[in-house]
Amino acid sequence: MAFDALLTERSVSRAADRLGLTQPAMSHTLARLRAGVGDRLFEGTRHGIHPTPRALALAEPVRSAMATLRHALSAPGQVRPAIRTVTIAANEYAQAIVLPHVAKTLADAPKPVGLDVVRPERSATDVALTIDWTGDRMRPGGPKSATILRDEFVCILRRGHSEVVTKYTLNAFLEAAHVVVGAERARDPVDLALGAVEKERRIGVAVADFSTAAWLVSGSDLVSLVPRRFAALLAPALELRLLKPPLELDGLTLGVFWNRRSSEDQLTMWLKNRILEAGKL
Predict the structure, then answer these.
(1) How much is the pLDDT for 73?
(2) Considering the entire predicted model, what is its pTM?
(3) Could you tell me if 125 and 255 lie in one domain?
């Protein structure tokens, strides 16, 4: 409720009034949200607060989950069965692209269910399903897995970028300062492709996630490469341009992973099938 109020009101004080809280209490709630999600979620401006790309990506799944909960609580005079919580680990791409569909289907689950979504980096024995890039996860003797979808990289630039082009050339690509995502540069598909042609890009900023990369690009002449579906989701709000990269890059494969215990649980497997459905939309 607090996140939705902040997203709607774009003001800590107005969100506090809406929920009947004091402004310090609302500020404390925002701090707890930031710590739990691992993102600032809202940036202060002269006109209030502005949601970060991560907050915009979370808006739909949060509102869908709230609508499901309101529906479950709206039928008076009935004995309501206990809601079971299932923990799913999902990277930021999966949270934005896959989970909104899953959240919309929760009312049709065989048992009342809520989701506790954590990042894949979290070490937790209670994680029933993991949604992440395949990479080294698909290995002999590893967890059970299925492919959800495949995506490709696109270059993102702000619409008012000083280099106004319709086709991004390799020279322009190499001259620009880049926002790179992730710490394992030796295995980055962009750097691998450039290394094959004995080229190297200029690094402006290194960040941990695609949301931050998109946010930085939207306010500068930096360029970055992010998955196409994720870029298309953020492009309208951040006024981004999407261009085809000037070199051949390996694509990205998103998968869902589970262990033997999860495969024996009807509700978890029902959720797994809803996750796979999302990849077909």
Answers:
(1) 58
(2) 0.71
(3) yes
Please state the φ and ψ torsions of residue 146, each to the nearest 5 degrees: -150, 145
H or E stretch including 8? helix 2-9
DSSP state of 164: -
The identity of residue 51, as a single letter, is: P
> What would the pLDDT profile of 132-165 be if each residue is shown by its tens digit?
998 755 555 568 899 999 999 999 999 877 665 6
Q: Which of 207, 165, 212 is nearest to 183 (CA)?
A: 207
Residue 179 and residue 240 share a domain? yes
CA distance 270 to 128: 12
User: In the predicted model, what is the mean pLDDT of residues 243-267?
Assistant: 91
Question: Higher pLDDT residue, 233 or 192?
Answer: 233
CATH number of domain containing 12: 1.10.10.10
Collapsed DSSP state (helix, strand, coil) of residue 15? helix
Structural domain contains residue 75: no
- Are 244 and 266 members of one domain? no
At which residue do the structure tokens 């923990």 appear? 87
- Whether 168 and 186 map to the same domain: the answer is yes
What's 279's DSSP letter? T
